[in-house]
Amino acid sequence: MSTGRLIFAADFADVDEARRASLALQPHLGLVKIGLELFVGAGPQALAWAREAGLPVFLDLKLHDIPATVERAVDRAVALGARMLTVHAGGGKEMLARAVRCAEAAGDTCTIVAVTVLTSLDDADLTELGVDAKPDAHARRLARLAFDQGVRAFVCSPEEVATLRVELGPTATLITPGVRAAKGSDDQKRVATARDAVARGADYVVVGRPIRDAVDPVAAAASLDQSVREALAGRA
Ligand SMILES: O=c1ccn([C@@H]2O[C@H](COP(=O)(O)O)[C@@H](O)[C@H]2O)c(=O)[nH]1
């Protein structure tokens, strides 16, 4: 896999658009993230071009279903060549354990990534959902549950990445979306800059709109990649 730690969220409706944009950014990327919009629209074709280009795919389907269904979906995602695949940590112990076992049995080429608390949720949203904990504590609880089932990679916000690093130790891979220059620009509520996310312990940052919608997407990706590399060097 590339040494890059920037993951581009290729949130497009159209495969050709996703391919063109991602290939232009490829020198600055570790992986490309294929999410719900592209996968629901295009199915397996959503990944084919990336496989051909040697660009590893983070398949962000956030699986959340009964264990047997998730297990079978993991098997299919591995067959499509996904290098990382997301499941919701809130799906419970058995679902998480079976997802991990299935990926291992299918050749261990795909890492199961547990999504903890979505970066679009804040304290008030959790209260509304009946969760009697702050996002930080809830993310820690879900991550621990997943870790104990064998999951070793996690999506969390930059706001709790340091907490998760302490909770899970150095072997965990921590991936943070919610990368923004400032709070309040859109639906992302628990945010930080790429530099801060990595300085606090993130291994990868996921960035979509700030690159996709930039006047010069390649320059935006190059600058984020540079910030991530500097923050990683500063941590060493
Ligand atoms: O908690 C989460 C989990 C996944 N995402 C995904 O990451 C990208 C972020 O894109 P931006 O345009 O930079 O907001 C997007 O595809 C989400 O589905 C997340 O944001 N938060």
UniProtKB/TrEMBL annotation:
Keywords from UniProt, A to Z, are: Decarboxylase, Lyase, Pyrimidine biosynthesis
Q: Which CDD domains match?
A: OMP_decarboxylase_like
Identify the pathway.
Answer: Pyrimidine metabolism; UMP biosynthesis via de novo pathway; UMP from orotate: step 2/2
Show the PROSITE patterns listed in the entry. OMPDECASE
- List the InterPro entries hit by this protein, alphabetically: Aldolase_TIM, OMPdecase, OMPdecase_AS, OMPdeCOase_dom, RibuloseP-bd_barrel
Pfam families per the UniProt record, alphabetical: OMPdecase
List the protein's name. Answer: Orotidine 5'-phosphate decarboxylase
